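Re: the 477-residue chain
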Amino acid sequence: MYGTIIDGLCKIGDTIIAIKILRFMERGRCKPNVISYSTIIDNLCKDRMLDEALAFFKEMVEKGIAQDVVTSSSLIHGLCKLGKREEAMKLFNEMLKFKISPNVVTFNILIDGLAPGEIMIQRGEKPDAFTYGALMDGYCLQGRMEEARRVFDRMVSLGVGPNIQIYNILINGYCKKRKIDAATDLFREMSQKGLIPDIVTYSTILQGLLCVGKCVDAQGLFNKMQKDGQKLNFYTYGLMLHGLTQNGHINEALSLLSMIENNEQHLSISWYNIIIYALCKHGKFDQARALFNTLFLKGLDVDKVTFTTMITGLCNGGLLNEAKELLPKMGEIACYPDDVTYNIIVQGCLKEGEDADALMYLKEMDRRGFLLHASTFSNILHLLPSKAKDHILLKAIQKLNPIEKPAAIISFLKHRLLFFLFHGYRCIWFYHTSTCAWFAHLVEKHFDEVAHWRMMNIMSGLKVIPCLSIFCSFCQY
C-alpha cells in the first residue's frame, strides 16, 4: 500500500510528500524496500535533482538494500542528462560488477547518451569483447541491427576477436528481426573461423527458422545437431515441438515426440502440453484425449497446465460436459484447479447457455477466493441485457452487498479497475453503456462515495490522474 502511494505521489510530481512517507515507513514496522527507494530516486533524477538522488542511493546502499536495474538505470540517465558521462560509465561498470543485468531501458540510455566503447577509446583504454558485446546487445534489443553490425565490424578492425557469445548476440538479433538469411550467414561464418556453435547458437537459429515458417530447414538443422553429437536439451525439444505445431505440422510434431520418448529417459510434461494444445486447436479431440490418457500410464506428473489446456480445448470445441468431468479428476490427484481453470469453465457454461452451472462455479470461485478475469466479467455483463430481469445471474450480482462482499467481484473492482483509473487509463468496458451502468451499480452498493466514482470516471476519460485522497477513499471499505 505504501509503495502504491509513493508511486502515485511521484507520478503527480509530489516527491517531497513521497519522501515524507518513506521516512514514516522507516519509523514503523513496514520498512521501505528497493522499489520505494528506486521510485523516489527515479523521480529526483527526472527533476534534475541529481545530488539528492545520489544521496538517497548512498543511503539505500548503507542500509543494506541492494540496488537493482531500475535504480542504476535511473541514476545513469540522470548523469547522462547532466553531461556526466564518465560517472555514468563508472556506474554502468559497477552494475556489471555486481552482476546486475542491464535491460533494454539501460541500453537505450547508454546508446543515446554514452557510446561506451567510444569513450573508452578516447580515454586510451581498449574495450574488450565483453564491453562490445554489451553495446551490441543493447542495439539488438532495440532492433537496430545496422548499428550492432557496425560495432561488430569496428571490434574486428581493432583486433578484438569475436567469440561464440558475440556471434550469438548478433544471430539472436537478426532472428528476432526475422532476418534469417543474415543469421544463417553468420552461422556459417562462425564455422569458417573455427568456432564451434553451441546449443544456444543452434537453438537460436532453430527458433528463427521456425518463426518464418521454414520448417524443413529447421528439421534439417535439427538432424544435423544430432549427427554432430550436439547434446539436445529440454529447451531445444520444446522449441521444435512448439514451432512445428505453430506452423500446422502436427504429424511431424507427433513423430518428433515419439522419437524423444525413445531417446530420452526424463520426459517433460510441457512437451505433451504443447502437443495437446495443438491437437485441440485443430479439432483433433480424439487424438488429444488419447494422448492425455496415456500421460498417467507413462507416470508423468500431470499439472494444472495440462488439465487447463485440455479443458480449454474441450470448451472451445463444444464438449463442455467432458470438460466439466475433468475438474473432479484434478482433485483426485491433488492437482487442484486454479482461477484460470474456473474462469475457462464459467466462460464455457455461458457460451453454451448453461447459466445454472455457471452460477455454481461462480459460487465455488467465491468460496475459494478466486478472481474473475476481465474477459469472464465482461461476458457476464454483456450477457445480462439480453436476459430477463429476474435471471439467476442478475440476481446473483444484485445480491452483492457490503456484508457479503464476494471476493471475486470486489477484489476485481478494487485491484483491477482502480489500477486503471489511478494510472489514468480509460477502461475498455467504459465504451459500453450497459457495462458502465453495471459498474456504477456495483460501486454504489459497495462504496459510500459515489461522487468519487463519477469523478474518477470523468477524470479517466480526460486522462487526468486522480489525487491521493480520491484513491484512498476507495480503499477504505
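The CA atoms of residues 54 and 405 lie 46 Å apart.
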